Every structure is written in C-alpha cells, then in structure tokens.
DNA sequence: AACAAGAATGTTATTTTGTAACATTCTTGT
DNA sequence: ACAAGAATGTTACAAAATAACATTCTTGTT
C-alpha cells in the first residue's frame, strides 16, 4: 500500500456521496469475496459512519439507527461495529472512542490518524516507512508486533488559519 | 532524550522497589520545582500505579486507595490521575484505559508503548527518529502536531518462548 | 416442503469508565 | 485572624461496553 491521504474528512467540498458509494461497493464485494454477510444493519451502520465527516461514537450511531427503526439496544450497534472492524471496513479511534470509515479496506493495513483537536476532522494516512520502523524497533526488543494504534492530534491547516473552524460539520 | 527501554514492567526479577523510590523522588522534586503539591492521595496513587507491574485501571486504583482509608468516590482517583498525567508522572494507555508510571518524567516526552497481548506487560520506548518523522509527516499535510498516541501490541519475547506467561503478575 | 444447524438479531440487565455540580476543608500569604 | 485559591468530599449522573439468554433468520440438506 502506498502513501495516501484520506481526505474524505477534510473540509473540502468534494462530493462526499461518491466516497460513500465507493466504500459501500468495496464493502459489498469484500464481504462477498470472504463469504460474509453485509446485512441491513451492518450496511446501514457503515453508511452512517461514512456520512459523518468525523469519527462517530457507538451511541451516536445507535441513535441514528434507532431513528430509522432499527433496534435501539447497545448490542445491536456493537455487533455491527465488531463486524465492520473485523472486516477492516472501519477503524476505531481509541483516543476518541469513535469509529471511522476506511477508504482502503481492500488493502489490509493499520490505521494511522491525524486528528484535529479543534474541528475533530480525522485524516487517515499511510506511511509504510513508519510501519517498517516500528516492526524493526519492536523486533530489537524481541517483540512480535500484532496491532498498532497511532493517533496524532494537533491542529489541521484550516484550523491554524482560522478558516472556518473545521469546515462543514 | 535518548532511546531507552523502560523495563520496570518486564518479567525480570530486579528490585522493583528501587524503581518506585526513584520515581517518587523524581516526582517530589519535579513538583517542588514547579510549585505543585504532591499531596497524600496523589503521592500514594503514584506509588500504587508503580507497584503494579502492568497498567492500572482507574477503578482498580480507586479500590486500592479505598482500602487504605482514602475517599472512595471516583472523582478522587480521576483528580489524582489528572494531576499525575499533567505533571508527566504517568501516562495513559488509551487502548487499555489504564495508567502507567513513567520512568523518565524529568524529560518531557510522548509515551510510546509496546504492550504484550498475553501478559499485559508494557514497555515504554523512546524513539526520537519516529517522533521526528511523525512531526515531518504531519507537517507535509499542514498539520501541527500536539499529542501522539502510539501503542503497539503483540507478543513479548517471554510470551513467545512460553516462558511463564508473563512473569510475575 | 420439512428440517436441522449456524448465523444473526432481539432483549434485559449489568459492568466499566468517566464527569458535572456544588459543598466543605485545607493551605498559604497577608 | 483573615481571605483567596487549591484540594478534597459528596451526590448524582453520563457515556461506553459487555454478559447472558431468547428468538428469528439463512442456508444447505433431505
Ligand atoms: Zn484505513
Ligand atoms: Zn481542524
Ligand atoms: Zn514516559
Ligand atoms: Zn508477554
């Protein structure tokens, strides 16, 4: 996987619905490929997560699902999240207890995030170099790496410029 | 700050009480230096966190404090944790919701962690290279870094060898 | 179509983690 | 002694996640 910047969460006015469609298509085909079922809740959960420009909390998602007639008990949403996570379709941002659609689900990877403290927009970035360095670093301690949580916070360029405090909410 | 491996949490049988004393001394002098008060709860909280070989949850800590006659309401422990965190005397491991003593509180830094999935031992490591790379990487996106959450999980060497599943608990 | 097995969802209750808000007490400088 | 701010006590609650068990939905097989 090459370096990329996932700008679906930036303040740009691109047609986000394209991203969403793309993500859902990818999800459909990945699930088909692996014999997994992208059921109604799961699909809708994924879509709702994508529709949010910033990471969505489990209970925020649950509320949205409930509005639409889905069951409104926590296990519903946590099961959907678990499925989407294990399918690599979303990431969890540990430091926010929130979930984010992944635009590169077809290429298994660790999510590295840049999180703006001001507008809460999140940019996923890929940096193979860092990944390699971390693996090596761990190896020198005899440590065998499994998962990586890399979440950087700070100020995005828009918020530094006082643009409009983070663009579209 | 140079590279180091904080092995106070490893399975080695070193005299951990030395680490604790050291940490408390550092804490005392740092607080004095900055005109902050290392009160009884705060001091004891720090000590208890250090006495645990693995990251300690807020409510685990609260229970221990309560046993010793301290107030047993959540705010007590969260206030102590907040103080210790902001003083740089402990780190929070986001992916575990748990807290860990820092052996290098005198040199302000971000906590980078290697967490064993098996024995839950945590090793703090420093890697100035990574820090620099991340800052640069963020900068190329116009992003100004503030905090870094870097938590790697996997298997420590002991657990790979099936040593004794993580040493002392 | 009938059936069985496993996957997915429904339901209820509880646990774990973390805060808000306001009252009281302690510390320090005057 | 006094005032101001820091720290702690207290009560209540919010937010995030899971346990356990019942029910329903799918899918392949007979
Ligand atoms: Zn991703
Ligand atoms: Zn921003
Ligand atoms: Zn540290
Ligand atoms: Zn281990």
Automatic annotation (TrEMBL), chains A, B:
Binds 1 zinc ion per subunit. The keyword DNA-binding applies. Keywords: DNA-binding, Metal-binding, Repressor, Transcription, Transcription regulation, Zinc. Zn(2+) binds at residues 116, 119, 156, 159. The keyword Transcription regulation applies. GO terms for biological process: negative regulation of DNA-templated transcription; regulation of secondary metabolite biosynthetic process. It comes from the Bacteria. GO terms for cellular component: cytosol. Gene3D superfamilies: 3.30.1490.190, Winged helix-like DNA-binding domain superfamily/Winged helix DNA-binding domain. Its cofactor is Zn(2+). One of its GO terms (molecular function) is DNA-binding transcription factor activity. Belongs to the Fur family. This is Fur family zinc uptake transcriptional regulator. It comes from Marinomonas balearica.
């Amino acid at each position: 996987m090459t370096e990329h910047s996932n700008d679906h969460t930036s303040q740009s006015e691109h047609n986000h619905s394209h991203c969403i469609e793309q993500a859902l298509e990818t999800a459909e085909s990945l699930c088909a490929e692996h014999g997994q079922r992208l059921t109604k809740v799961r699909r809708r959960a994924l879509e709702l997560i994508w529709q949010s420009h910033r990471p969505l909390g489990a209970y925020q998602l649950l509320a949205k699902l409930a509005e639409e007639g889905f069951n409104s008990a926590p296990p519903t949403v946590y099961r959907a999240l678990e499925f989407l996570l294990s399918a690599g379709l979303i990431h969890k941002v540990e430091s926010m207890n929130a979930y984010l659609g992944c635009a590169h689900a077809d290429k298994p990877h660790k999510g590295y995030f840049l999180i703006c403290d001001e507008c809460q927009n999140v940019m996923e970035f890929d940096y193979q170099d860092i990944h390699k360095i971390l693996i090596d670093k761990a190896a020198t301690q005899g440590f065998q790496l499994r998962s990586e949580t890399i979440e950087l916070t700070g100020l995005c360029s828009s918020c530094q410029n006082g643009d409009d405090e983070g663009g579209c909410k």
